[in-house]
Amino acid sequence: MLACLVERLVAENDTDSIPDPEKDVDVDGVLKDLNIEGSIDYGVTAISLGSRDFGGLYSEKPLAVIRTGGADDVVRVIRRALESPTLTVAARGNGHSINGQAMAHRGLVIDMKSMADNNRIDVNVNSMCVDVGGGALWSDVLKHCVSEYGLAPKSWTDYLHLTVGGTLSNAGVSGQTFRFGPQTSTVTELEVVTGNGEIIVCSNSHNSQLFFSVLGGLGQFGIITRARLLLQPAPDMVRWIRVVYSEFDEFTHDAELLITSQESFDYVEGFVFVNSDDPVNGWLSVLLDSNQAFDPTHLPKKTGPVLYCLEVALHYNNNHDDPFMMVEKLLGKLRYLKHFRFEIDLTYMNFLSRVDHVEEAARGSGIWATPHPWLNMFVSKKDIDAFNRIVFQNILKNGVNGPMLTYPLLRSKWDNRWSVALPKNEMFYLVALLRFTHAHPTESEINEMVEQNEEIVQTCIKNGFDFKMYLPHYNSTVEWKRHFGEQWGRFVNRKRQFDPKYVLAPGQKIFTRNHQF
Questions:
Q1: What is the pLDDT of residues 290-314, one digit of tens each?
Q2: Which pTM does this prediction carry?
Q3: Which active-site residues does the annotation give?
């Protein structure tokens, strides 16, 4: 699944390993008279942008990058691709794919961030919803809705510099998912340009088959150009708390208690960290403030190689709410190690933007631009204890040089009509291994990370774990069939209906032009 890295890992100035479509394709002929409001960029900078992503593991050189003026331009691009027997189209958001999912080898990459409609964030206070462009960043949606109207979408991702259309094409999960479902659950209407080159407005009651297909559909059925999202009143402040556990069963007991209780925190996540003084993977990763300290002498005498942190947050308003009593009531039910409780108060916007300082530091050190062999998966509750013993406590006992997230989600908050594939169990855990490297990693070092990811996946398969990849990436139809399981037939039928010539999202490697079953 994540193999063959060496030949795909391309140095910044190494163009020999990237096929040059301009040697084989008449660029001017393909895009001649493409009358769009935006622009077509064949330049080195644009091609470089379209051939790379945050993962840094794959590189596929496109024919051109299209900076569209709106949905009509997207229609024109797709229709031009339909005139060709081989041309494909990929929608690129903010470039945070990990395995080349938003690339189009010798195809057309649409830069969704360039769409003029992204600047329109239309809030309807009466209906408590907002209309936003598919290429708008969630960070911009947050700032506009909160600062102008005191409102906010219900469900988020941890990192907000992602496009609306990008996360809705996968799911969009974070600490609010246990309560409101993923971001796909907060959508009431979409404008989509299908692989047939048609603009269709859809909802759960109008053109519903397209609506449910596109949500979690990995970009296979259409490009989201507008979304209508539900809003709620935004709180002023957040009490952000982390508590530590030495035993995994107590950590999972408390996390599951919180996500199934009527009275709970507004945000529940968790992560695994190394039981050492390692500055990245160890004790210091738990602290929320530079004035806080982690004293390992208070840990139980018998602790394993890793520890567990439950991360929660409670919303409150200035001059109206006192979070103290509710926080103590909720924490009083938990079994965490009493010497290891860390908390701070932040504004709501600062809490949701909490990853920004991590990005700033990573950019400053150079590691934001290096490869990121991340692995994201959903593991069934019935298998999470075994996963902990085999993976967290053994394979990953030294950490991944970045966060190792794990927290429970409820399947009942997900609509089975969406295209996303989930474990069968009612409760499952997100496992996200967010690996970082140092500023100048070798190919060998990157390969070791990729191979460890593959070892984890194969461990899950060998042990018969009920799991699914989140933000999935496979290289063969056999693997994709296994991923979707009983939903594979439905997924294929949706593709045949909304993108019958297999033009869209070739970087996912699910289908190819002129695909044969």
A1: 999 999 999 999 999 999 999 999 9
A2: 0.93
A3: 96, 158, 269
Q: How many domains does the chain fold into?
A: 3
3-state secondary structure of 34: coil
Domain around 342? 237-469
- Contact by Cβ (8 Å): 135, 115: yes
In the block, tokens 């461990």 appear at 459
Looking at the fold, whether 172 and 212 belong to one and the same domain comes out as yes
Place of tokens 């993108």: 499
**For residue 261, is it left (φ>0), alpha (ψ between -120 and 50) or beta?**
beta
Token pair 């397209």 is at which residue?
210
Q: Are residues 266 and 406 in the same domain?
A: yes
Strand partners, 467: 379
How far is residue 428's CA from residue 379's CA, in Å, rounded to a whole number? 5
Sign of CA pseudo-dihedral 203, 180, 415, 224: positive
Tens of pLDDT, residues 323-357 = 999 999 999 999 999 999 999 999 999 999 999 99
- What's the CA gap between 250 and 258, in Å, rounded? 12
Please count the CA atoms within 13 angstroms of the CA of 115 that sit on its side-chain side.
Answer: 30
> And the tokens for 341?
């409780």
